[in-house]
UniProtKB/TrEMBL annotation:
One Pfam family matching this protein: Peptidase_M20
Domain named Peptidase M20 dimerisation: residues: 214-318
Species the sequence originates in: Sporosarcina newyorkensis
Domain of life: Bacteria
Similarity field: Belongs to the peptidase M20 family.
Protein's name in the database: N-carbamoyl-L-amino-acid hydrolase
Cofactor list: Zn(2+)
Entry keyword Hydrolase: yes
Amino acid sequence: MKALSMSVNGLRLNERIQSMAEIGEIGLTGVCRLAHSPEDKEGVLQVKKWMDSIGLVTTIDHFGNLIGRMNGIANDEPVLMIGSHIDSQPYGGKYDGALGVLGALEVLQTLREQNIEPKRPIVLVAFADEEGSRFNKGLFGVRGMLGKLEEGELDRRDKNGMTRREALIEFGCDPEKFHESIYDPARIAAFLELHIEQGPVLESKNEPIGIVTGISGPLWMTVEIEGVAGHAGSVPMGMRQDALVGAAKVIVKLNELAQEIPKAPTVSTVGSLQVFPDSRNIIPEKVTFTVDLRDVDEARRDKIEYVLRQEIEKIANEHSLTYTISEDTRSEPRFCNENILHIMKEESEKMGLTPPELMSGPFHDSLEMSYVCDYGMIFVRSKDGISHNPKEYSSPEDIALGAELLYKTVYRMACQ
């Protein structure tokens, strides 16, 4: 059953989503707004205009985060923070991240239109580089804001050789002034995020929205395997040190390890692979590929990692190869606040909805926020479970329901 009456303007929200999709548009439905790119900057400035139009106090910090503040009655109180991201995958859809930013904007505009002044300030953030696809390490903006960047992050290069430092400067940020953009965690009461599910569960249950109970812990690694290049026609098979053969065996083994326990939510992916020298008649000398391993059970995930490392050693010895493994991201599963879950359940029931509870396999800005404050998430049904793909789609009706639940949750947490 759908809500009988809506506070938010679903039509306006969906029109803004379609408008945002024109920035970095690829094909009929796809989007490419890589972090810190000109398309990303154009998107940020568009959202800033919308924020300014409803009277938010806006700024773009030196990490590239767009921040809009709605003051409250007690402005010294810790803020309720809401939002998501607007950067995308290189072959992405129009809803991932953008829904969370524009849905939060709709919530604040609805409060304005109803002349509701929150008791505590509400801060909307469009976090920079959640995806991590350009520099192979995500959640940059939120980690930067919280003072949790790691050594060497600004030296990471994209596929064109540009460093993150160079990209940030080109975007208009000043890495030398990062300290000016650190947000005191003590000033954050809680964080809420609206997001598409990016999976098939809600559709399989015929439910428009879901309530997230937690986020799986991602482990990202980069593996480089090195052998010896040689002529493809003259080096006997048994004498080769073929880096690609070794990499292929590792990739297959990773796939098998992730499926060893039936019905476990473990997932593994190798989504990027580079071969050198990349010629049809040269035995590959070096292969670099990424590993993405996720699970709600951290111990199970780490056990798979341990076995995978042993297998890499075994395969390298078998083919006389050398290898290096670098860790890009490691996070533990993080669970949503019970009180926020309770509020969402109560408000859903008032709307005539019975959203299922589910874990999130993908990570989100909420993952990093969970280390400094309570958090809650709302999922919106994804057609066919597709995401990170131009075919990504959520219906206007489902989106409106998700935004309405976000509005009611924000009202309970910041206005009552």
